[in-house]
Amino acid sequence: MMVRAVIVAVVLCAGSVSAFAQTPGAPETPVVVTQGIGIIKRAADQAWVSVAAETRAARPADAQRQSAAAMTSVQTALKNLGIAADAIRTTSYSLQPEMEYSGGSSRLKGYVARNQIEVRVDALDRLGEVLDAAGSAGATSVAGLRFDVKGRDALEREALRLAVQDAMARAQAMASGAGRTLGSIVRLEEQREATVTPMPYLARTAMVERVDTPMSPGEVEVRARVTLAIAIH
Predict the structure, then answer these.
(1) Which of 28, 99, 167, 175 is most buried, by the most CB atoms less than 10 A from its CB?
(2) pTM of the predicted structure, to 2 decimals
């Protein structure tokens, strides 16, 4: 009898645990999820441009020597215009054979050396002058012109603040439409956006004459986007 009583007690306890595990939990707090966008527009006050010197020769050393001479001339011309040394950086360099194909066969035509730099221009009123000077000094191509603003980090933070305000206002409108009020924030995340800047294409080759190149930088947009999840009551 004692053994049977113990078995019954164990069965009853197991049943109690099972019943407790199946008890549904408290209902989840309802939330609204929305996105906010912050946009700041500023006149461009900075530019970057890629400048390259490309040379060809029968021997690789000659191609390299000519490319070095051309790029030295270009950088000297830029520095004479007041471009600081830290505003010029090399972005690529290559030395490759140049092949000629004819009748199903190929032959070595020579070698091509290419030296490319990126130049930061902080005085946009002299941008056209910089481009012309680079071309006249020996650059064989000028391309990839892009505009931006100085102090971008501070503008990005301000755009982020505006994005949060926008998300909160949208959440408030959603809650009001549902006859609810906003509670505490459940989640707030930044969604990184690509930089939106005017990027006119500019390319020149074999420039030997000075020209007066007009430039219109326009405005730069700094954007921020956030996702907000907030409880409603």
Answers:
(1) 167
(2) 0.69
